[in-house]
Amino acid sequence: MQGWFFNTGLQDSEQARIVRRVLFALVAGGLAHTLVCWIAAQLGFFRGSNAVFFGLFLAIWSGHVALILFTLAGLNRRLRDPAMTMPVIWWSTTALLVSAFYIDQARLCVMLLFFAILQTGVFRSRRRDLVFVGIYCVLVYLAILLLVSRWYPEAVDRQAELIQWGTFAVMTLAVAMLASEIGTIRNTLARRNRELGEIVERIQRLAVRDELTGLYNRRYAMERLAKIREMAGRGAFGVVIAYADLDHFKQINDTYGHALGDEVLRRFAERASALLSGRDFCARFGGEEFLLVLAKTDMERARSVLEQLRGELAQEQFEHAPALRVTVSQGLAEYIEGEPLEAWLARADEALYRAKGQGRNRTVVAPRRPLEGGPVG
Fold this sequence. Notes:
This is diguanylate cyclase. By secondary structure, the protein is α+β, with helices and mostly antiparallel strands. It is built from 13 helices and 5 strands. It has 2 domains: 2-203, no CATH class; 218-365, 2-Layer Sandwich (Alpha-Beta Plaits), CATH 3.30.70. Helix content is 64%, strand content 8%. A 5-stranded mixed sheet has the order 2-3-1-4-5, sandwiched between helices.
């Protein structure tokens, strides 16, 4: 059995839930339908021989089994509605109507099973689909009464059957209205759940991202950097960090306004993100200051990436400030085994300070100084 589940892909929890629903609807519903019709046959209300009865339900159960096998094989995944809700409802309703053609006196008892069938789709189907299947059932039920009263007039109390049909039609209308109301509530809940999900996603994003640039914020970046340092400390790989500071950013804000200043920050974030690989990241530390972390790399490659970033930023064009040229000063520091995180960051900050002191718009590498007191774990 486990091998069959493996072959049909039922480890997928959603597919497994669909299979359970289809099995329950067809097997439980089919057994209830068969039992009601069998009792009607024992009471002499089934119009036909035993061969007709068994042939009819052999055909009905063949359809049930076909739908079950279709779902077990995973073919339902190709459908627009993999849950198979409406196909099961349409087939079960049709099987019910066919059997109702052969039942006399107890026909309404059989048709009442339709509401159990309809119930399976109340929370999973569109209101329009349920209304269509309700109209289909009511009209075909009426057609059955007219045919039976014409072909087998001695077996039908026409007035009583029409009264029963009218009762069934009214009950179907009531159930359809209830399903419509439930559908409205379901849609409202679904919309509110989507809105709540978006709010939660936004909160989670704000917890780790800077809202303006989309980069990691300072707190989350420090958490990630601490973990990367631990792995690098075990000799897993080399890591280079860089402090980057946009040159004369206050003047940009004062001259062109904060809107353009925000655009400059976003452009830097876009350029940095495009140049960094998947294992690297860039974070906004505040204002115009950024931290870049380049993992599994050496100083030569890191400096090449940072120089490319500096060059591309200097070539950026701004529509509302054609004369503006944005430059950046950067200080790099390669991780030294055993170096505390604070000391590592301090070396990068010192390199950034030197870049500014040497005239800005440049990249400076921090020296690999030996630590006082030896390596620190």
